[in-house]
Design brief:
The protein is mostly helical. It has two domains: 103 residues; 202 residues, no CATH class. It is 58% helix and 0% strand. Helix 1 packs parallel to helix 5, helix 10 runs antiparallel to helix 12 and helix 10 packs across helix 13. The protein is globular and about 60 Å long. The relative contact order is 0.10. It binds zinc ion (2 copies). One zinc ion binds next to helix 10 and helix 11.
């Protein structure tokens, strides 16, 4: 392809192994990771979570940062050698160089630590590392669809959702918890909260799961049946590929409203902090896992807990699966309320029936519910 430009940002060359595309993308991702970590060292007050700051083993992080930057540079160099279009490789190397110029792994911690508004850049970097270390190998080793690449269609958009939700974690946590605290404080009763908080840990955890999923079920169902709300939730269903990253695609209004309402009964009942914390960790992992491209069917778990097959059917474009499987944790809720659908096979396709009617870019999707796009969006 001699006429293709050397530095085009558009991918016109093959992207499979050996073409320098994978090394280029990895170089850019590692470069961003390394540069982000260096920024966290420079501006800890505004780029790191106060809850995490005290927990960091700084010497280990420096060692890891060193490996990340060296890896990014090396992969960038490999991509430049393999690929006619040098844009990816040079971008990865440039990011690494910038990180080194700003101090690299020897960067000093700048400024006095203050509390106030912050972006969870460290939270984002930890999430990127944690999720990719667990889910990428899992989906490569036990794939439902083995032809599906990690860098499948629209992975960039979903990565933006992933990044934005981690960066604004302070704001979304506040918006999730504050409304319950402000508007439902009157509903809290000391004897009830004391009783709930004193129950055995496992009982509290199960109760939180039941109470929050009951609320979540109905909020989710309303997001499907009320057209004005569906415009927000359609963004989540616009993903036509299922993997761990696809679950991140949630309109901010959808995510915050659902979480804030689901938090109300938990707040009113007043469970212990440790049970709440375990529940939050559980939600994050399960909500990601049920979208994953893994072939495990968990036949013994089907009636008890939402599995990938259960939620994949929620995303199915097949007419018989529309408005089914609203629960995030407990399929029993769908069974009780008549929306359970789980045949002995996997869906053929995902997305909104009748084709995509949602913009493909992040900003377009953010604006989409407000643009009053009329018509029957739902399949
Ligand atoms: Zn839904
Ligand atoms: Zn989903």
């Amino acid at each position: 392809m001699p006429e293709s430009p050397h530095l085009s940002l558009r991918t016109t060359q093959p992207t499979h192994f050996g073409q320098g595309w994978i090394s280029g993308v990895l170089s850019v991702l590692l470069g961003i990771l390394g540069l982000g970590a260096v920024f966290c060292f420079h501006f800890p007050s505004v780029l790191t979570m106060p809850e995490l700051r005290e927990l960091y083993p700084v010497p280990w992080i420096r060692a890891l940062l060193h490996i990340v930057l060296a890896g990014a540079f090396l992969l960038g160099a490999i991509s430049v050698c393999l690929r006619y279009n040098k844009a990816l490789g040079l971008t990865g190397m440039g990011l690494t160089l910038a990180a080194w110029l700003l101090g690299g792994s020897g960067v000093s911690v700048d400024g006095e630590l203050r509390t106030g508004p912050f972006l969870g850049l460290d939270w984002l970097l930890l999430n990127v590392i944690g999720y990719s270390v667990v889910f990428v190998p899992l989906e490569r080793l036990f794939p439902l669809r083995s032809q599906q690449s990690v860098f499948r269609r629209q992975w960039r958009v979903d990565l933006i959702y992933f990044a934005v939700s981690a960066l604004i974690v302070q704001g979304t946590t506040l918006l999730t918890m504050k409304p319950a605290m402000i508007f439902f404080d009157w509903a809290r009763n000391a004897s009830v909260t004391q009783f709930a908080g004193s129950l055995p840990f496992a009982i509290q955890f199960i109760l939180i799961l039941v109470v929050s999923d009951f609320t979540q079920y109905w909020v989710h169902r309303l997001f499907h049946v009320i057209p004005a709300l569906w415009r927000f939730h359609a963004i989540h269903h616009s993903a036509d590929v299922m993997d761990w990253l696809a679950g991140s695609r949630l309109h901010l209004v959808d995510a915050v409203v659902t979480r804030a309402i689901s938090y109300v009964p938990i707040y009113v009942l007043g469970f212990s902090e440790s049970a709440m914390f375990t529940y939050v960790a559980w939600v994050v992992i399960q909500a990601t896992f049920i979208h994953a491209n893994v072939r495990w069917e968990f036949p013994w778990l089907r009636p008890l807990l939402a599995t990938p097959a259960f939620h994949h059917w929620h995303h199915s474009a097949a007419p018989e699966a529309v408005d089914k499987n609203f629960a995030v944790h407990l399929p029993a809720l769908d069974w009780i309320f008549g929306s359970y659908y789980l045949p002995e096979r996997w869906p053929d396709s995902y997305g909104i029936a009748g084709g995509p009617k949602v913009p493909e870019g992040f900003l377009g999707q953010l604006a989409h519910p407000f643009t009053g796009m009329r018509g029957n969006l739902k399949g």
